[in-house]
Structure formats: structure tokens, C-alpha cells
Write a structure and sequence with these properties.
By secondary structure, the protein is α/β, with parallel strands linked by helices. 29% of the residues lie in helices and 17% in strands. It has one domain: Rossmann fold (3-Layer(aba) Sandwich).
């Protein structure tokens, strides 16, 4: 596990963009695992800028997103398909058919989960998986539980997650209560994992996740079992964990 600390949010976004750009240059047909929420927005802006400058080509890249809200079609302004289109896909030369997100309106969510896992496998697996971390330690929508889900699955969102996401909706009552998400086992299959964390509010859970016991009650702690995890944190988010993990000079 490698910890890279940057002074601020802009710094971690640029370092994350460096890592993604290096992978795209190394393998133009790489498979990227993407995330939504406020944390990766700056990364996507950095990637768009590099594309516009002629430094990146997404034409052979394939992407898989971690999750999608149940009950929201891809054109819903709060769906994760819509988020990805507006924050990345519409601004680079990635073919739409190379971008994969679970269907939030599938008639059979369990079958959709199986289809999604099989699709990832058919593309050779994920080369780099991007993650954020929730205040309760969730990665994707893997909420605190008594076990680590293996594959993609239908999950009920924790009340704390619903409350945190309510800022994106007109009211808390409009926030979907369920989502399809990659499981912890799906995430661990990625060849490399990149976790971004920003702000003092993430300091305690980041430290617990990366230096405490591996437990499904802190879902992100499962990342301790992966051989290649890079944590990108700003000074505030890294304030506790850096006392136990020596930051890299990168």
C-alpha cells in the first residue's frame, strides 16, 4: 500500500490524472474502473484538459462504473450514467459503447448484476479501479455489514449514505434507497486500485480503513488485502494515516 500526500484537492486530482494518463499511454485499450460523487470530479476535469491539449486518446479505452441507483434511468439528472456523461464522456473521444454502467431500471436487478460481472470478465478485467471513501467506510455502495459481498449485487443504502447524498436531490425522500454496486470481491480483482480522499472529515475513516483490522463493518478495510493500492490524500485527509504509513515521494 502506497500513500501519496498532496497539499490540497487540486494536487491529488493532478496526481491521479498522472496515474491514469500513464496507464492509457502504456495500454491504449486499457479498462478503467470509474467512480462518481464529488471526489473524482477534479480528476475528470484534469483528464479532459489533457485530452483537449492532445496528450490523451480515449478512443480504445473501456470503462466500468462502480454502481448505479436503482429506479433511475440513464437520462435522469441524478443517475450515475448522466453524471459520467456530463463530467467526462461527453468531453473526450471515448465511444459510448465502450462505457459500461449497471442499468438502474433492469427488470431483474440480480440478473443485471450477473451480466455486469460477466461483461467485466469478458473485457479482461479492470486495470485501474478508482475509489472514493464514504464517511462510514463504504467503497462503491458496499455499506458496513457482517460480510464482504463478492460480486456485483443489489444493496440497500445506509441511512447515513442517503443523508449524505440528499444534497444532490430536491429532498431526502427523493434519494433512491437501493443501488447496484460492484462487490468487494469485484473491486479486489482490479490489477491496481487508486483511492482518493480529501478533507479533514475523511481523516479518521481513512486511517481506520487502512491501518485498523480488516472487517466488513469498515468496508474499505478490505483494500489491505490487495497487492497494489495507491492512496491519494490531501494534507487534511492524511493527517492521521500518515503517522502510520510513510508517504511516498511521488
Amino acid at each position: 500500500m502506497k500513500l501519496i500526500v498532496a497539499p490540497d484537492y487540486a494536487g491529488i486530482c493532478e496526481k491521479a490524472a498522472d496515474i491514469f494518463a500513464a496507464e492509457i499511454h502504456r495500454n491504449p485499450a486499457c479498462v478503467l474502473g470509474l467512480a462518481t460523487g464529488s471526489t473524482p470530479v477534479g480528476l475528470y476535469q484534469a483528464l479532459i484538459r489533457r485530452y483537449q491539449e492532445g496528450a490523451l486518446d480515449f478512443s480504445k479505452v473501456q470503462t466500468f462504473n462502480l454502481d448505479e441507483y436503482c429506479g433511475l434511468a440513464g437520462d435522469h439528472p441524478q443517475s450515475y450514467r448522466y453524471f459520467m456523461q456530463k463530467n467526462l464522456f461527453d468531453h473526450v473521444n471515448i465511444p459510448l459503447e465502450h462505457t459500461y454502467i449497471p442499468s438502474g431500471i433492469a427488470d431483474d436487478p440480480e440478473q443485471e448484476c450477473r451480466r455486469y460481472d460477466a461483461l467485466i470478465e469478458s473485457c479482461g478485467g479492470i486495470d485501474i479501479q478508482l475509489l472514493g471513501i464514504g464517511h462510514n467506510g463504504h467503497i462503491g455502495f458496499n455499506e458496513p455489514d457482517d460480510h464482504f459481498p463478492v460480486g456485483s449485487h443489489l444493496t440497500r443504502l445506509a441511512e447515513s449514505t442517503i443523508q449524505a447524498n440528499s444534497r444532490f436531490f430536491a429532498s431526502e425522500s427523493e434519494v433512491p434507497t437501493h443501488a447496484i454496486t460492484m462487490g468487494a470481491g469485484s473491486i479486489l480483482k482490479a490489477k491496481k486500485i487508486l483511492l482518493m480522499a480529501s478533507g479533514e472529515g475523511k481523516a479518521e475513516i481513512l486511517c481506520r480503513s487502512m491501518t485498523g483490522p480488516v472487517t466488513p463493518f469498515v468496508p474499505a478495510s478490505v483494500l489491505q488485502l490487495h497487492r497494489d493500492v495507491v492512496i491519494l490524500a490531501d494534507e487534511a485527509a492524511a493527517s492521521l494515516i500518515r503517522k502510520q504509513i510513510q508517504p511516498s515521494d511521488e
